[in-house]
Amino acid sequence: MPAAQTSEENCVAHNGSLIPIPGRDVMVQAWYQGGVSVFDWTDAAHPKEIAFFDRGPVDPAHFTMGGSWSVYWYNGVMVSSEIARGLDVFELVPSPLVSQNEIDAAKSVRFAYLNTQGQPKFVWPASFSLARAYVDQLERSKGLGGGRISAIRQSLSGAEKASGGQRATALGQLAGQLDGDASGSGDGAKVRKLAGAVRDLASR
Question: What is the rounded distance in angstroms from the CA atom of residue 54 to the CA atom of residue 73?
């Protein structure tokens, strides 16, 4: 892991969980006194850290057992059990590596109860943040050109301001256009996910 470590810190990968960012494989991992790391392993051959938190050693002069024993994503926050210093609760903040729309879409996945070892299925309700999360990913990966990304965002904004049949019609038209975009995209699978999210919005 890239975080600096002193000789007075215990550091080993421990209990973590998946974060429901749509279209990506993202995990939050506990590392004892190595802190907490959020990493993207969508491309499993090239994982990368996208966020972190590190308290530093419990005692800078003497080895003392401590650190994040476990960290679990639950209904929009990451809850970390810190052995020596109590409970930490974190929220993701946007950066070039994760957008606010992706965070908002992740927060839309809710559980009344969570045992992360049960590996419950993530289900994203239809939302504009879900659709925009896919748009952000297509922009980041250059799966669609900049002009087309701007046009899609404008169409989503217009549909969100509309209501009833007018909204459904606008979203249906956009979904049809996205079906056409998929064949010429550098990431056709992601464009099809976006089209599906837009259709779900249209039928909501």
Answer: 17
**92-111, pLDDT tens digit by residue?**
999 999 999 999 999 999 99
Q: At what angle do helices 188-202 and 128-141 cross, to 10 degrees?
A: 160
The pair of three-digit structure tokens given for residue 132, joined into one six-digit string: 């925009």
Is pTM beyond 0.85? Reply is yes
Percent of the residues in the chain that have a pLDDT greater than 70, as a whole number? 99
pLDDT, tens digit (0-9, with 9 covering 90-100), for 50-88: 999 998 899 989 998 999 999 999 999 999 999 998 999
Distance CA 204, CA 200 (A): 6
Q: Which residues contact 76 (CB under 8 A, 6 or more apart)?
A: 91, 106, 107
CA dihedral (174, 180, 184, 185) in degrees, to 10, reads 30
**Torsion angle in degrees (nearest 10) through CA of 147, 149, 153, 154:** 20
68-74 β-sheet, strand order: 68-74, 77-82, 86-90
Domain range summary for the chain, segments of one domain joined by +: 16-118, 128-202
